[in-house]
Fold this protein.
Amino acid sequence: MMLDEQYKEIRAMVKKFSDTAVAPLAQKIDHEGQLPKEIMTQLAENGFLGSYVPEEYGGAGMDYLSYALIVEEISRNCASTGVFVSAHTSLGIWPILNFGTEAQKKKYLPKMASGEWIGCFCLSEPNAGSDAGSLSTFAEDKGDHWEINGVKNWITNGKEAGVCIVFAKTKKTPDYKGISVFIVETTTPGFSIIKEEDKLGIRGSSTCQLAFDKVKVPKDALLGEPEKGFRIAMATLDGGRIGIASQALGIAQGAFDYAIRYTKQRVQFGAPLSDLQGIQFMLADMSTKIGASRLLIYHASALKDAGLPYSKESAQAKLFASESAMWVTTKAIQLCGGNGYTKEYPVERFFRDAKITEIYEGTSEVQRMVIAASELKAIH
Ligand code: CAA
């Protein structure tokens, strides 16, 4: 799939930003486990926090393919910054844009696009991971307001968030059928961060356990129809998975670029490593997996932009791109030998960052469930 001029320009613009503003800070972000405020401000100023929010709500008015390019190019230098953008945009903004009332869109989207309010997505719980429908957070109808009680796990951007998309049951069902969705502002009394996880990778991205203790929200905090929340979760994740696939692609490309340069300058047996056919074969396989990931991501994004079904395609893109990122980053370390195993070189960071892409927003096993279910339904 060829990108036309408009997308080439967007990629060039994000690449410049990523190489000048993100790359110099990537190692520090990983070591300190924190995204500097200046990066968040610059992301907002460049329109990357509201890329596909329509201009009437203060966004950049781009499409989803442009958003995928943004996440890829940023993640090529720093996967923590990449997922900050991705979780905020596809998990925080998109459900409001797609399911919100006009009043909700007017209230939240301009502040989210400007970065004043960062978004997060509160679905998973201590006992509800892949089986998201079994969550137990409950929102009780108190007449003039809702009261939310529960604990949420693995919440990306939990520390920075101003707005949470919270999934809670409003009917006590054993399955997904009683789930509704609420927009909760983190300044609401009863909201708190229980803990921030200490992780293997994406160390600059906050991953939090959040408590909702008698959190009182107004009636109009309900997003979409009551008890239709699981569909909203699944539809949101369909788009979110394109974002994570793009993050995985960026990680793989970053590791590959580094490995190429390393093998060209590293001399062993009297010649650069890149002269050896065994090394070239490894580079060729890495390049092919990266290229195939990119095509799957562009295809899923193009379907989404065209308003066509893309659930299977986004699962395929995430599955392939994340498993490719793990494979490519493993090979990148191999190509850099002992040096690649040290923190002096960036490939070990890419390797640690790649792993999470096989886990969050649906594990590789969940993606296979989605793909297989779709094929089994389509072919008689
Ligand atoms: N879009 C809209 N609706 C959908 C849908 C989709 N893509 N997929 C399913 N649905 C609907 C179905 O139509 C059905 O609705 P009705 O009963 O009204 O017909 C309902 O959802 C249930 O569908 P299934 O029977 O297929 O659901 P299931 O219980 O078998 O679950 C699953 C399927 C794919 C395993 C799902 O539970 C799932 O995706 N689990 C993984 C959850 C996940 O990705 N969690 C990540 C959390 S976010 C995160 O990682 C944190 C972060 O901050 C980054």
Remarks:
- Strands lie at 118-122, 138-141, 145-156, 161-169, 179-185, 191-196, 207-218, 222-223, 267-268, 271-272.
- DSSP finds eleven helices and ten strands in the chain.
